[in-house]
Amino acid sequence: MQKILVIGAGHGAGQLLDSLRRGGCEDSITLVGEESWLPYHRPPLSKKFLSGEMSQERLAFRPENFYTRNQIVTRLSCRAVSLDRSAGCVELDTGEWLPFDRLAIATGARVRVLPMPGAALGGVHYLRGIDDARRLQGDWADKQEVCIIGGGFIGLEVAASARAQGKNVTVVEAQGRLMARAISPAMSDYFLKTHIARGTRVLLNAAVEEVLGDNGRVSALRFSDGRELPVDVVVVGIGVLPNQELAADAGLASDNGIMVDEFAQTSDPRIVAFGDCSNHPNALLGRRLRLESVHNAVEQAKTAAASLMGQKLAYNQIPWFWSDQFECKLQTVGLSEGCDRVVQRGNPQAGKFSLFCFRDEELLAVESINSAGDHMVGRKLLVARVYPTRQQAADADFELKSLL
User: Fold this and answer.
1) CA–CA distance, 277 with 256 (Å, rounded to integer)
2) What is the C-alpha separation between 148 and 230, in angstroms, rounded?
3) Is 313 a member of any domain?
C-alpha cells in the first residue's frame, strides 16, 4: 500500500479525496490542513454565512464521518513548511516529517494585504476562511460605517451583505469600474447602478493612501487626493496570491502558480497540483491561466485524482463563475477579455438578461443575470465552439439550443 499525502484542505482537496475513494483507490491517505476545519464551501462566507442565514454545519464539503469511514487521516491546524522531493517527505511546522509516495498540492491562495501605513489596525478585515468571517461578524455587529476596499466579487458580495444588515456602506475601487478583471464594462455598469440604487456609496478611481486609527483601531481612510473617510470597519478585498512557495522552493516549476500539464501533473511526475495554486493549460482557450473558482478547483481535482491513480483524464473546461449580490445572481461562462462587441438579450429593467460578448464573430463569454437557461446553453455553445450570430443572440425568441 502506497502513501498519498494531500497538502491543503480546501474545496478542491475535499473533491480529490472523494474522487480517490469513489475511484477505488485503497492507498493510505493523509490530509494536512492549515485551518482547524475539514474541507468546506467558501463561497457562502461572503454571503449567507456572513449574514447569518447559513449555519457553519452546512458549509461542510462532506460530513465528519466521511473521513473516518474512508480511513483518511486528517492533520488540521498545521502547515507544511518544506518539501524534500529526494527523500519523499514533507516537513510540518510542528517539526514532524510526513512521508509520501505520491503528493497532491492544493495550497490555494492567500489574500493580498494593504501595502500602506495603518493596515494592521484593529477593525481592518480580510475574508478568506471561516475564522475571518466569524471575526467580521462579531466586529461589525454594533458598528455602522463599513468601508469595502476593492470592487471585485468578494468586496461587492460583502457590501451587499452589509447593506442587507442596515450598515452604511462605501465601496472603494482603484480602477474605473467594478469587477473589471471578470466581467464586461456593460455588466460592470449594471452592478454599479444596482449597488447605488440599494444605498451603497461607490468611489471609483479612488486610491487609499493610509489607514488612520485611534487607540489602535481604524477610524478613517485617507485618499491620495487628501480626502478622509470616517469608518468603523474596513473589509479588504484586493485579490489573492497563489501559495506556490512550498513547490517553488522544492524546485518545481512555478510562475503565477505551480505549473502543471493537462493532467494536473507538476514537473515531478509523483506530484500533482490543482485549484487556485495551479497554472494550467486550457485547450479550449488555447493558453495557460490560473483560475480562482470553485468550478476549476472541483474539476481539476478530479483530473488530479485520476493521475494519482495512474489514469489519464485531461482537464478541458470552459471557466465559469457566479456571484450573488442583492437580488442579482450573476453567472458568467468564458472570459470576456478582448471582446469588441456586446449584445444584450433580455431586459435589464426586469432584472433578467444576458450579455453575449463577441470578438468579431467569435463568442467569448456569456454573462447572465437571473437567466440560468442562457448560462447553461452558453456553456454548451462555448464548449462545442458553436457561435450564434449577434442577431440570434439578441433575439430572445430565437432558441439558442437549436444551434446544438
Assistant:
1) 8
2) 13
3) no
In contact, 333 and 378? CB cutoff 8 Å: yes
Give the pairing of strands 362-369 and 352-359: antiparallel
> Which residues on adjacent β-strands are paired with residue 108?
none
- Beta partners for 332? 321, 367
| Torsion angles phi and psi, residue 14, rounded to 5 | -60, -40
Q: And the C-alpha cell for 221?
A: 481612510
Indicate if 259 and 227 belong to the same structural domain.
no
CB proximity list for 349: less than 8 A, separation 6 or greater: none
pTM exceeding the 0.90 threshold for the entire prediction: yes
**Residue 369 amino acid letter:** I
Output phi, psi for 98, to 5 deg: -105, 125
Q: What is the pLDDT of residues 317-339, one digit of tens each?
A: 999 999 999 999 999 999 998 89
Query: Rounded distance, CA 165 to CA 218, Å?
Result: 21
Could you read off the pLDDT of 198-220 as tens digits, one per residue?
999 999 999 999 999 999 999 99
**Total tally of structural domains belonging to the chain:** 3
Q: What range does the domain containing 334 cover?
A: 327-403
Domain holding 357: CATH number? 3.30.390.30
